[in-house]
Amino acid sequence: MKAPVVFLPGLHATDAVWLPVIERLDGRVDPWIADLTLDDSISAMAARVLADAPRERFALAGHSMGGYVALEIMRSAPERIERLALLNTQARPDTAEASERRRALIELAQAGRLDEVAERLIPVVFDSVEIVDPKLIALHRNMVRTVGAEAFLRQQRAIMDRIDSRPSLSAIHCPTLVLCGVHDLLTPPDRHEAMAAAIAGAKLVVVQGAGHFSPLERPYEVAFALANWLQVDAEQERPSAGRSG
Predict the structure, then answer these.
(1) Crossing angle of helices 96-110/134-160, nearest 10°?
(2) Which of 154, 192, 210, 221 has the fewest CB within 10 Å, making it most exposed?
(3) Could you tell me if 13 and 64 are in contact, meaning their C-beta atoms sit under 8 angstroms apart?
(4) How many H helices and E strands in the chain?
(5) Pairing mode, if any, of strands 203-207 and 29-33?
(6) pLDDT of 104-127, one tens digit each?
(7) Cβ count within 10 A of residue 59
(8) pLDDT tens digits for 60-117?
(9) Domain 1-245 sits in which CATH superfamily?
(10) Domain limits of the chain?
(11) Whole-angstrom Cα distance, residue 77 to residue 170?
């Protein structure tokens, strides 16, 4: 039987952020990718996921903002979650500097300059702009345009208003994977180390050659980690596979 998995995308991300990983899980999972573009609070996003998810119990994988939603789901309905994966995310609220950066991006989006938003994010979401596959940069730009300014603003407001999830980490008791890219500038490895230390039995995986978008940058490695988390087999990397998979 395929493992039911709910995948939660991050800020300004579409289904495309998870598809390379799902492909490499090679039909071993029953995936459902949530839409997190419709609500302006993390709690509302979590409630929508719980209402719309096709299964009563499932494994839950959240990337970036999706991790904030996953942690809210663990507070509100832990009985529905069989396993938890937190990728390129954090439990702590924004620093003052992070909030200021968000406000600057919000101002650009409100002014109709969404393409500038995408360009400003490129250097901080990928491991190295100089060597990353240009197709991934093009995909990033397309995801920002597809999500659009209104949804981007809703998501940013939700992120800025989120609560501190650190006090609730010790209440998580399901098998948990905490994963990040070694060069994640937005949610660095030390924040993942802290989360893994606070969750009993959590496994920490740091992916080499990846930044904040590890599911896109290193889909084979991320799929392998998720397969171990789910206790299913994943497709093995082909020798000829490139950096972006």
Answers:
(1) 110
(2) 154
(3) yes
(4) 9, 6
(5) unpaired
(6) 999 999 999 999 999 999 999 998
(7) 24
(8) 999 999 999 999 999 999 999 999 999 999 999 998 899 999 999 999 999 999 999 9
(9) Alpha/Beta hydrolase fold, catalytic domain (3.40.50.1820)
(10) 1-245
(11) 15
